[in-house]
């Protein structure tokens, strides 16, 4: 099924896809079932990915990587999840691919030379420590602090849900260096560090959970961890801006992984629908089975195109100026959701674009929203059999300008 989409891949991306499929092939369902059942990190899989050179897929060639960008990494992560490794396989390696993009973008030459090669070789594993119990998505409220003491910072605080902290050698850590009430903007005063996870000063407590059991999730206590100043990435206080260079590729890669997982589920469901015979014929011949599978295929196509488009955009924009790209990606996601019929998701993204970018893509997003509302009104009329006074949620009440379909510019 991915073949339609894969026609757009470059030769290098196809090579990455083929290599990833080869690396994943020996790690069959029995391997992943046992890793999940035992709750043991898939070390052999991580080693195989590293030995194939795939951990460096999006890292600069100067430090041992392949420099192929986030699109190639997305192709690779989708293939890992689709192989049957699912999120256990993907989470075992993905932090090592997106996590250090802030170091690539903002690290000094000395930091890159010291930090990137061991990660690419698979000699070190990294975890990503941002989330806190009292500051989930609201990152600016984090309480973990890093206080300067001469040539070091002393870090105290607590993080939660930190994947792979049980097996990682290093941590990419976001901490406050200036208290929240002393900064002009909430996003200021946080700093980013990439440093050794010294377990004499860091306690890691696994969280019991169902699903993705092979990859540990943890509460992590920092009890006065001394972090050398040379392990700070970028200027003090700019950590929030800098860590977005890890979070943005993270979102793209996780989207690609989710598509891979969906494809794996769909392939298995379709195979079972052909194989399972009830009332003398395969259950897949019943519309009640075939149609939801077809709808899932359409949704996966839309999600795949969106994720790959986001990856291509990410790669096409300079390292340090990716703000407009986020708007463009959000707009594209809204468009794809609209085309695949997921109107609530389309509305959510298009409203965000209208708010984020009132002079750029905003007007096009508003037109698209009005179009969705118009269709919803028509659908309501058809369903009720009589004209419905439909109140657009995208435009203020009152007379609306006449508009035809051709007014919607979908060119790119
Ligand atoms: C398996 C797993 C692995 C993870 N690995 C890591 C890791 O390695 N490193 C790390 O730092 N973190 C990790 N996380 C944390 C993850 O990034 C957080 O779960 C995520 O940031 C959301 O935080 P939260 O769970 O506290 O949700 P909350 O912030 O409590 O949000 C809860 C819900 O409310 C919604 N919500 C919140 N505010 C608003 C708003 N203003 N408007 C609309 N909706 C809102 C959210 O969308 C969400 O659906 C992991 C989480 C899980 C479950």
Descriptive account of the structure:
- The longest helix has about 35 residues, at about 240-275.
- This protein has helices at about 5, 10-25, 30-40, 45-50, 70-95, 95-100, 100-105, 110-120, 240-275, 285-315, 325-340, 345-355, 360-385; strands spanning about 125-130, 145-150, 150-165, 170-175, 190-195, 200-205, 215-230, 230-235, 275-280, 280.
- The protein has a four-stranded mixed sheet. The chain has a four-stranded antiparallel sheet with strand order 2-3-7-6, with no helix packed on it.
- A hairpin with a 2-residue loop joins strand 2 and strand 3.
- It has 13 helices and ten strands.
- Helix 11 packs antiparallel against helix 12 (about 345-355).
- Among the domains are: about 125-240, Butyryl-CoA Dehydrogenase, subunit A, domain 2 (Beta Barrel); about 320-410.
- Residues about 400-410 have low confidence and may be disordered.
- By secondary structure, it is an alpha+beta fold.
- It is globular.
- Helices cover about 50% and strands about 15% of the residues.
- It binds flavin-adenine dinucleotide.
- The site of flavin-adenine dinucleotide has 11 residues, from strand 1 and strand 3.
- Flavin-adenine dinucleotide binds next to strand 1 and strand 3.
């Amino acid at each position: 099924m991915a073949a339609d989409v894969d026609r757009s891949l470059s030769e290098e991306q196809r090579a990455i896809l083929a290599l990833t499929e080869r690396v994943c092939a020996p790690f069959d369902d029995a391997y992943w079932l046992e890793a999940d059942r035992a709750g043991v990190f898939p070390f052999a899989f991580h080693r195989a990915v590293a030995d194939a050179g795939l951990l460096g897929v999006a890292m600069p060639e100067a430090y041992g990587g392949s420099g192929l960008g986030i699109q190639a990494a997305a192709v690779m992560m989708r293939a890992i999840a689709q192989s049957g490794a699912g999120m256990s396989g993907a989470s075992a390696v993905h932090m090592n691919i997106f996590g250090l993009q802030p170091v690539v973008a903002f690290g000094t030459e000395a930091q890159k030379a010291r930090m990137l090669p061991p990660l690419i070789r698979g000699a070190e594993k990294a975890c990503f420590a941002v989330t806190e119990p009292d500051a989930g998505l609201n990152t600016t409220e984090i309480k973990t602090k890093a206080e300067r003491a001469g040539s070091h910072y002393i870090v105290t605080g607590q993080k939660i849900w930190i994947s792979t902290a049980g097996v990682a050698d290093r941590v990419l850590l976001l901490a406050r260096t200036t208290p929240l009430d002393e900064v002009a903007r909430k996003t200021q005063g946080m700093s980013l560090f990439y440093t050794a996870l010294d377990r004499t000063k860091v306690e890691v407590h696994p969280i019991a959970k169902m699903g993705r059991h092979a990859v540990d999730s943890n509460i992590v206590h920092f009890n006065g961890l001394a972090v050398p100043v040379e392990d700070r990435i970028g200027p003090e206080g700019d950590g929030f801006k800098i860590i977005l260079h890890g979070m943005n590729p993270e979102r793209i890669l996780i989207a690609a992984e989710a598509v891979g997982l969906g494809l794996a589920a769909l392939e298995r469901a379709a195979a079972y629908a052909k194989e399972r015979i009830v009332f003398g014929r395969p259950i897949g011949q019943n519309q009640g089975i075939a149609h939801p599978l077809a709808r899932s295929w359409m949704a996966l196509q839309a999600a795949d195109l969106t994720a790959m488009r986001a990856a291509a955009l990410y790669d096409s924009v300079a390292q340090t100026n990716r703000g407009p790209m986020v708007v463009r990606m959000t707009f594209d996601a809204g468009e794809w959701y609209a085309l695949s019929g997921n109107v609530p998701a389309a509305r959510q993204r298009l409203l965000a674009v209208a708010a984020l970018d009132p002079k750029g893509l905003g007007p096009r997003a508003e037109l698209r929203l009005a179009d969705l509302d118009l269709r919803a009104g028509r659908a309501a009329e058809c369903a009720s059999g009589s004209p419905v006074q439909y109140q657009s949620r995208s435009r203020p009440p009152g007379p609306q300008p006449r508009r035809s379909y051709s007014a919607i510019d979908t060119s790119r």
